[in-house]
Specification:
Blueprint: E1 20-24, E2 35-38, H1 39-55, E3 63-67, H2 72-83, E4 87-91
Parallel strand pairs: 3-4
Antiparallel strand pairs: 1-2
């Protein structure tokens, strides 16, 4: 018996598109409201990242550096990178102060 191989970038494809996937609390200290992303938004945004990377010539096996604070946009970029078949290389971002 062989298991089906799936690109982990498609992780949100099987979920209800209207269900909340991520609640981003990163800007609460600045008085902002939490940002929610549904699985549908996460999927659409990740695919847009993948299209942008492909248009820039990024493809399977190439490395993509991800510099981001811990927020929903990081997850979007990570999944988009995986969708195009590239390898995400997380780089540390620090806030001043």
């Amino acid at each position: 018996m062989t298991a089906a191989v799936r690109n982990i970038g498609t992780i949100a494809d099987d979920a209800d598109r209207d269900s909340i996937a991520v609640i981003d609390l990163a800007d609460l200290n600045n008085g902002a409201e939490p940002v929610t992303r549904t699985y549908g938004e996460l999927t659409d945004r990740s695919r847009a990242v993948a299209r942008g990377l492909a248009k820039a010539g990024i493809g399977p096996g190439q490395r993509v550096g991800l510099v981001s604070f811990n927020r929903s946009d990081y997850l979007t970029a990570l999944l988009g990178t995986m969708l195009v078949g590239a390898v995400a290389v997380p780089l540390r971002a620090e806030r001043d102060g």
